[in-house]
Amino acid sequence: MRTVAVLALIGVLMTAAAAAQEVRKTHALSLAGAPKYAADFSQLDFVNPAAPKGGTLRLAATGGFDTLNPYIIKGNPAAGLGLTVDTLMTSPMDDISAEYGLIAESLEVPEDQSWVIFNLRPEARFHDGSPITAGDVIFTFNLLSEQGRPFYRYYYRNVVAVEALGTHRVKFTFSGPGNRELPQIMGQLPVLSKAYWQNRDFEQTTLEPPLGNGPYRVKSFDTNRAITYERVADYWARDLPINRGRNNFDQVQFDYYRDATVSLEAFGAHEYDYRNENSSKAWATGYKFKAVEQGLVKVALVPHQRPTGMQGFVYNLRRPVFQNRVLRRALAYAFDFEWSNANLFYGQYTRTESYFSNSELAARGLPSPAELKLLEPLRNDLPAEVFSEIYRAPSTADGNSLRRNLRRALKLLKGAGFRLVDKKLVDPATGRPVSFEILLVAPTFERVVLPFIQNLKRLGVAARVRTVDTAQYQNRVRDFDFDMVIATYPQSLSPGNEQRDFFSSAAADRPGSRNLIGIKSAAIDTLVDHVIFAKSRPALVTATRALDRALLWGFYVIPQWHIRADRIAYWDKFGQAEKKPRYGVDIFSWWVDPAKEAALARAKTTLEQ
Questions:
Q1: Which domains does the chain have, with CATH numbers?
Q2: What is the pLDDT of residues 21-35, one digit of tens each?
Q3: pTM greater than the 0.90 cutoff
């Protein structure tokens, strides 16, 4: 009887503890403090709520497309498909660490964030008028988890159950408490129609426009050439505060071009309206045509406060030649960033020295005591420099020279057993000369890679470049069929589950994952988990800095560069609100100004005569 009584008491106490845990119901969540906008906000600060609807926004894309299903590994999806599908929640460009209800009117989360409930808006509809229900949410989650891109399996890994609590109420239960990002990760879930997809083969490419629920739908397309979206006049969410003053264009058109050079020429001929420029050379030299001089085309450098992430030459550790950490370190001395910046980039870039650059998440100085608590248990599995040195990318500034850097590289290589035989660097593990291929998809990068290859030659390394078309490049990268590529690891202000797809052992052997490097490190797996399960913002910053150090000293990439601004150019037919978002340009808060468009048409006629 005493045992039964004790068990009963424990049950009562557990029930009381669960009941005592505060459950918060809110319109928004933020990983960086309180959301900017209160529950009763009427519009975003950077929009014009009275913006006129109408006109066409013409944009450019590169390569081609052969599917309208962006959620699977097969095929090359068309640009802009995200315009057709809404998510449970959404982030505005002036509060990117927060998510506000979209399909979900509100959400509920307990203190330990071990689950989340989304309360769906009863008025939410698909384009055919059918309601969006909890059943559609559950169907989408299971569909993406089981048949979608590998990314989703890592992203949703800690979700152990999803259940409908009513027609418009759905609950996600997590494997345990502590993952602060998971409620917002689930808020990013696009909601697909169960009725539409349940009798279709989701894993196959398709050119049938799927049923959507977003502000736009597919109007027409010409495979590999162009796709046009039309604004949904009776879009269910058009008057929500998060959308008011946005999605103003009647049509959004993407035209496809072979490469960036052709695309820029087309922009100068006003084949499309708006361009985000990624090439420093093009930015410095490509916008000197008459329409710019006469003010018909506006160019602007727009500073932003987004993390810039890591772009670099990415080693594929699945290749035996790159499993030698000393070799990976030494080869970085052959990339002369300062020369490239001065001679190729017109001085526009800053050298990247963190996977989380331009944010407080980047490692700085030596590890703090809080970082050491995470790193010390992993000391035997991490490079010693993680604990004792500040990472600096090889540089030819401050009195250094390329020759001196190459001598340092050779010293490292000889210390690791590499030998120069007939001016060829010989790998002690294989007895063969070191050689590899750098795979590119854009010819514009050849001007960066070819000088690097010449510098590698001075080390006795035979590197070669191969540029392939978009489809072949995507297939080879998906299957990890490359030696080295140039890739980017984008980061947010609140990193979390996506780090598994970038760096975890589980992702290394899964085709289509973002772990292009092929990292398989128990220590990095642990640090990724520390990031994911950080209990507070300070804990997240600590964990991210610790992960940053481990990645940098692993020499998995040769860091390249970044810029802390967006370079944009546009034909002067748009209206914009006076206030701008702090984290970048939101083109869908712009609108076509009829007076400006008419004036532009008249000026172009004069220009052409």
A1: 313-388+399-562 (3.10.105.10)
A2: 789 999 999 988 899
A3: no
